[in-house]
């Protein structure tokens, strides 16, 4: 196979055209790796539920899904009069914006869809719906291109034979394709480097064990799974050469929000002199937020910590905290890998420059 939307590896989201409407299909990431199944969506509320319930997750994939959510809603509403259409479409934007708080790609994509809509205010509802669908398809395709570009820049940072630790899943499943952190690894492997991956399990939702390990096994990229508390031991024994993670939001000063546990890995990497890289499309950089302490951190259900699926292992009634992300201060980040190049030792001036350059 292989065109930009249907690359050789897993297709996380796909659009099915039908005359006058369409469907978004998304791999159900709550059931991987045991079950590989697409779920079908036809409304903004449905897609918002899919995002909230983690059917689709990972910052760029959430952005692409939200863009299609807007397009689905516009197609569904296109027979309404202009005013009714606008009111109902506004409600679609609102429900999507409330699905998850941390990944800025969600708000970036919704803003882009709003901008597209505002350019067409004078035309009829069918034209608006068609334009919104075209915009969602562009966001989808761009994400894959950007990931490949980041992959090429990032691959130059990895030596042949590097053993690379990653946390959470920043792979094809977390994006429209190729991946951010795993995209760098894929690109390095494609360039002929012998890379092996150490995947943190990633408590509590197990994105590392369930998704990263699965993606790497699918492509025969050597992968070793560890529990999160083993990373320090491996680093201390010289078994890790580099860390690469993705991110959900980078503040204007270079502070990085990513899956809970990332900060711990960054501190350990600094202690052991191991480079800590963050693969980060520009859509994940939020210049409106001065520093990481202003990034909203999602707090998820206690049941994710007290057990998994039907199994509960914690004492009934125990008090639980479940912050889903943490913030790694910029001074622990060796470099951000973006589609415009590598930003070593990121800071406010360098981030501002990359947007103006
Ligand atoms: O809660 P999740 O699974 O959506 O969290 C995902 C992450 O933390 C990823 O590392 C991040 O979104 C980067 S994805 C390319």
Protein topology:
Layout (H helix, E strand, L loop, with lengths): L12 E6 L2 E7 L10 E4 L2 H9 L6 H19 L4 H16 L6 H15 L6 H31 L7 E4 L14 H10 L5 E5 L6 H12 L4 E4 L4 H6 L5 E4 L3 E3 L4 E4 L2 H10 L4 E4 L5 E2 L16 H4 E2 L2 E2 L12 E4 L6 E4 L2 E4 L3 H9 L1
Parallel strand pairs: 4-5, 4-7, 5-6, 7-10, 8-11, 10-15
Antiparallel strand pairs: 1-2, 2-3, 8-9, 9-14, 12-13, 15-16
5-S-methyl-1-O-phosphono-5-thio-D-ribulose binds next to helix 2 and strand 9.
Question: Could you please describe the fold and organization of this structure?
Answer:
It is a single chain. The chain is an alpha/beta fold and 357 residues long. 39% of the residues lie in helices and 18% in strands. The chain contains 11 helices and 16 strands. It has helices at 44-52, 59-77, 82-97, 104-118, 125-155, 181-190, 207-218, 231-236, 262-271, 303-306, 348-356; strands at residues 13-18, 21-27, 38-41, 163-166, 196-200, 223-226, 242-245, 249-251, 256-259, 276-279, 285-286, 307-308, 311-312, 325-328, 335-338, 341-344. The chain has a 7-stranded mixed beta sheet with strand order 6-5-4-7-10-15-16. β4 (163-166), α6 and β5 (196-200) form a beta-alpha-beta unit. The protein binds 5-S-methyl-1-O-phosphono-5-thio-D-ribulose (MRU). Residues 57-60, 103, 168, 170, 174-175, 180, 207, 245-248, 258-259, 324 line the site of 5-S-methyl-1-O-phosphono-5-thio-D-ribulose.
Offer a concise description of the structure:
The protein is built from eleven helices and 16 strands.
């Amino acid at each position: 196979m292989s065109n930009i939307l249907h690359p050789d590896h897993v297709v996380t989201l796909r659009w099915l055209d039908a005359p006058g409407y369409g469907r978004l299909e998304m791999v159900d990431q709550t059931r991987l790796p045991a079950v590989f199944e697409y779920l079908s969506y036809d409304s903004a509320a449905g897609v918002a539920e899919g995002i909230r319930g983690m059917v689709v997750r990972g910052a760029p994939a959430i952005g692409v899904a939200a863009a299609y959510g807007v397009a689905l809603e516009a197609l569904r509403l296109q027979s309404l009069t202009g005013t009714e259409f606008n009111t109902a479409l506004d409600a679609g934007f609102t429900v999507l914006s409330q699905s998850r708080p941390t990944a800025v790609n969600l708000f970036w994509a919704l803003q882009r869809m709003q901008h597209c809509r505002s350019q067409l205010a004078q035309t009829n509802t069918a034209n608006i719906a068609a334009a919104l669908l075209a915009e969602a398809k562009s966001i989808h395709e761009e994400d894959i291109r950007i990931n490949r570009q980041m992959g090429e820049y990032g691959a130059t940072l990895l030596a042949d034979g590097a053993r690379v630790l990653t946390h959470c899943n920043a792979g094809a499943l977390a994006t429209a394709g190729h991946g951010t952190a795993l995209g760098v690894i894929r690109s390095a492997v494609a360039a002929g480097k012998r890379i092996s991956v150490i995947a943190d399990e990633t408590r509590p939702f197990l994105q590392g064990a369930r998704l990263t390990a699965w993606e790497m096994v699918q492509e025969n990229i050597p992968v070793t799974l560890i529990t999160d508390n083993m990373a320090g031991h491996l680093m201390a024994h010289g078994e890790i050469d580099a860390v690469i993670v993705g991110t959900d939001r980078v503040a204007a000063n270079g502070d990085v929000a990513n899956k809970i546990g990332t900060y711990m890995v960054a501190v350990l990497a600094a202690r052991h002199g191991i480079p800590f890289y963050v693969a980060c499309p520009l859509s994940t950089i939020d210049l409106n937020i001065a520093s990481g302490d202003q990034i909203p951190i999602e707090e998820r259900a206690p049941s994710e910590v007290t057990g998994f699926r039907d199994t509960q292992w914690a004492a009934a009634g125990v008090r639980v905290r479940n912050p889903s992300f943490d913030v790694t201060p910029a001074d622990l980040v060796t470099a951000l890998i973006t589609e415009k190049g590598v930003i070593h030792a990121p800071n406010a001036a360098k981030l501002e420059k990359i947007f103006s350059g």
